[in-house]
Design a protein that fits this description.
There is one protein chain. The chain is α/β, with parallel strands linked by helices. Helix content is about 20%, strand content about 30%. A seven-stranded mixed β-sheet has the order 2-5-8-13-16-18-19, with no helix packed on it. A five-stranded parallel β-sheet has the order 3-6-9-14-17. Helix 2 (about 15-35) packs antiparallel against helix 4. The radius of gyration is 18 Å and the shape is globular. The mean pLDDT is about 90.
Length: about 200
């Protein structure tokens, strides 16, 4: 079994020479993408399509953007990520439709063994992250390996997601926890007094 096959199947692997070329390819594309001026970056999604596993038609990632491989990232329609998105995509990262990331969001599929003897042998592991549709993740949030976030979720800024988050909730904190269900009050109450009704 190759190191890439081990990585993709959740086994311990070494991210050395065999995977170096894959990371190098992604870094070269990202270096070009991250150094485009703003107007050019608006039309540079083909650059990201060179390395991403799959995309839909409409998506935009504000530079700078960082990832390990790119080919493990699968994003849905109308995805938007603000500045400084980091995705350690050693395992599959699946992002649904209509997902927004605030600045500084980090998705980490990669980890290292707790046992120092294994860690000192340069062994790593990777588990997938799945994010549903209609999700908004607040600035500075970290999502750890082996996490599923449901549909219609809002994650508060600065959260550290260490457990699965169900659909239709607001969640926040370190560790991130469900604060409440999203309900009828979210459809109208927040906006009362903020807009002039015609």
């Amino acid at each position: 079994m190759t190191e890439r096959e081990k990585m993709m199947s959740g086994k311990l692997y070494i991210a050395g020479n065999e995977l170096f070329e894959d990371r190098k390819r992604a870094k070269k594309v990202l270096s070009t993408y991250n150094n485009t001026d703003y107007e050019e970056s608006l039309f540079s999604s083909p650059l990201l399509k060179e390395i991403l596993g799959s995309t839909k038609k409409e998506f935009y990632v504000e530079p700078p953007f960082y990832c390990d491989y790119g080919y493990n990232i699968h994003i849905g329609e109308k995805f938007y990520a603000n500045y400084n998105l980091t995705i350690l995509d050693c395992a599959k990262v699946t992002i649904g439709d209509n997902v927004f990331f605030a600045p500084g969001v980090s998705l980490y599929t990669a980890g290292h063994p707790v046992d120092a003897r294994l860690r000192n042998q340069d062994l790593e592991y990777a588990f997938p992250i799945t994010i549903g549709s209609n999700v908004w993740i607040g600035g500075g949030t970290i999502v750890n390996p082996n996490i599923t976030i449901g549909d219609n979720v809002v994650i508060g800024s600065g959260s550290v997601v260490t457990h699965d988050i169900p659909s239709d909730v607001v969640a926040a904190g370190n560790p991130c926890r469900v604060l409440r269900l999203i309900g009828e009050q979210d459809k109208s109450e927040y906006f009362k007094g903020h807009f002039v009704e015609e």
